[in-house]
């Protein structure tokens, strides 16, 4: 299983490099939007829409919402910062929800959560990419470092369960291991982007922490819906939503933080 996960991860990283650094910007941005819509397809069962036609309806609604959001941004009806602040508030609420689980998940709340997760994630990823593909890659590497560090540290030292009712395999030792790896990336980022270490370290650690919240939140919805994996796109990794749950949580905060930090 580990070899399969590594092979799939390497292939996904190669494809990502092609998207970020080879494809024309218009096509790359379309790929980002497509990723979000695949995420919507996999989110649909959380709201009780499991048949293909029902899933397509949910994807169409999300796609229409992306278009409406784009229109509102274009004409100044809403601001980018407002969308990201709302997203950060949502992820804080999700963190509280994780602490209170197990609790019932009403379908209407699953609908709202789907839009609160997917729309800001699309906007943040698209915006950061348009500014700098290298900066977007840096954000993704932070999220991956938090995940990879947590996986290996949890395997080696894991003892204290992080959220046993949601994801029994995750441990606090794993979180610490992931944050240690993120700290190294923060030091690298401070040098590469010429920013103070005292700013970059807590910023990167915050991104790492919120990525954990994203992972647990999607796991919460999967468990509530009785689903093990959101899909089977990536062998050994599950669905696409299983791969972007952490990114969806981290992206809005990263976009806000990079703006404030002048990155």
TrEMBL record:
<comment type="similarity">
    <text>Belongs to the CDS family.</text>
</comment>
<feature type="transmembrane region" description="Helical">
    <location>
        <begin position="7"/>
        <end position="25"/>
    </location>
</feature>
<keyword id="KW-0444">Lipid biosynthesis</keyword>
<keyword id="KW-1133">Transmembrane helix</keyword>
<feature type="transmembrane region" description="Helical">
    <location>
        <begin position="31"/>
        <end position="49"/>
    </location>
</feature>
<feature type="transmembrane region" description="Helical">
    <location>
        <begin position="135"/>
        <end position="153"/>
    </location>
</feature>
<keyword id="KW-0548">Nucleotidyltransferase</keyword>
<dbReference type="GO" id="GO:0005886">
    <property type="term" value="C:plasma membrane"/>
</dbReference>
<keyword id="KW-0808">Transferase</keyword>
<keyword id="KW-1208">Phospholipid metabolism</keyword>
<feature type="transmembrane region" description="Helical">
    <location>
        <begin position="174"/>
        <end position="193"/>
    </location>
</feature>
<keyword id="KW-0812">Transmembrane</keyword>
<feature type="transmembrane region" description="Helical">
    <location>
        <begin position="108"/>
        <end position="129"/>
    </location>
</feature>
<keyword id="KW-0472">Membrane</keyword>
<dbReference type="Pfam" id="PF01148">
    <property type="entry name" value="CTP_transf_1"/>
</dbReference>
<dbReference type="GO" id="GO:0016024">
    <property type="term" value="P:CDP-diacylglycerol biosynthetic process"/>
</dbReference>
<keyword id="KW-1003">Cell membrane</keyword>
<feature type="transmembrane region" description="Helical">
    <location>
        <begin position="81"/>
        <end position="101"/>
    </location>
</feature>
<dbReference type="GO" id="GO:0004605">
    <property type="term" value="F:phosphatidate cytidylyltransferase activity"/>
</dbReference>
<comment type="pathway">
    <text>Phospholipid metabolism; CDP-diacylglycerol biosynthesis; CDP-diacylglycerol from sn-glycerol 3-phosphate: step 3/3.</text>
</comment>
<dbReference type="InterPro" id="IPR000374">
    <property type="entry name" value="PC_trans"/>
</dbReference>
<feature type="transmembrane region" description="Helical">
    <location>
        <begin position="199"/>
        <end position="221"/>
    </location>
</feature>
<keyword id="KW-0594">Phospholipid biosynthesis</keyword>
<comment type="pathway">
    <text>Lipid metabolism.</text>
</comment>
<feature type="transmembrane region" description="Helical">
    <location>
        <begin position="56"/>
        <end position="75"/>
    </location>
</feature>
<protein>
    <recommendedName>
        <fullName>Phosphatidate cytidylyltransferase</fullName>
        <ecNumber>2.7.7.41</ecNumber>
    </recommendedName>
</protein>
<keyword id="KW-0443">Lipid metabolism</keyword>
């Amino acid at each position: 299983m580990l070899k399969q996960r590594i092979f799939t991860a390497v292939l996904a990283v190669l494809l990502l490099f092609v998207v970020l650094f080879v494809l024309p910007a218009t096509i790359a941005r379309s790929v980002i939007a497509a990723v979000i819509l695949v995420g919507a397809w996999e989110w649909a069962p959380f709201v009780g829409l499991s048949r293909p036609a029902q899933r397509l309806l949910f994807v169409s609604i999300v796609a229409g919402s992306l278009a409406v959001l784009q229109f509102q941004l274009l004409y100044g009806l809403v601001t980018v910062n407002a969308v990201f602040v709302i997203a950060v508030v949502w992820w804080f609420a999700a963190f509280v929800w994780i602490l209170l689980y197990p609790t019932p998940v009403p379908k209407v709340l699953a609908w709202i959560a789907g839009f609160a997760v997917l729309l800001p994630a699309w906007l943040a990823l698209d915006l950061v990419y348009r500014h700098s593909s290298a900066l977007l890659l840096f954000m993704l590497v932070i999220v991956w470092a938090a995940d990879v560090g947590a996986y290996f540290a949890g395997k080696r030292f894991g003892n204290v369960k992080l959220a046993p009712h949601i994801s029994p395999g995750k441990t606090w030792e794993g979180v610490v291991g992931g944050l240690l790896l993120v700290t190294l990336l923060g030091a690298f980022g401070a040098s590469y982007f010429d920013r103070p270490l005292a700013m970059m370290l807590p910023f990167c650690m915050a991104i790492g922490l919120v990525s954990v919240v994203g992972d647990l939140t999607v796991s919460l919805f999967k468990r509530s819906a009785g689903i093990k994996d959101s899909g089977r796109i990536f062998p050994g990794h599950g669905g696409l939503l299983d791969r972007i749950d952490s990114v969806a949580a981290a992206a809005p905060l990263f976009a806000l933080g990079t703006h404030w930090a002048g990155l």
